[in-house]
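hi! just following up on the protien thing from before. the input was this:
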Amino acid sequence: MRKELLIQTVNEFLKPHGFRKRGSSWYYTGDGLISVFNLQKSIYSNLYYVNIGLFVDKDKIAVSPLPENKGDVRFRLNTLADDELRSKIESTFDLESSIDDSLRRQQIDEILTQVVAPVFTNFLTLSDASRYLTDIRIDSIGVITLEGRRILQLEWTGRQQ
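and the predicted 3d structure came back as:
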């Protein structure tokens, strides 16, 4: 699969849900926050990482563009998956794997439906995002800034081993 087809496939899923595309990122503006879906190419291969970001700091939201790596909350999609699904995510987003384009498009759609849609459904308001990030134990899978933690009223729980 070519990068353009990967981006087209992701765009066809996210755009009807209100996301706007800019570069290799898609943005959704909620109530007091902006959600980000980002594709990041590995420097070592043709693997693409799926990054999820959330901006809640009004000073950051006022600045454009909003790169995912500057978000108040950041994590990779595969951190939400069990071993089997993580393996599927990695092989699906590795454009060098020998998956037929039509099957890869189907798998991307399944992954976005099963894993990504539930995340962004919980990123519509600050209170929903706070509850969701507590439920997934964000401290064990991702990064959250001190300002993001303050705005979302999240306590530090420490990294889980």
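The chain has one domain: 3-152.
The mean pLDDT is 91.
cheers
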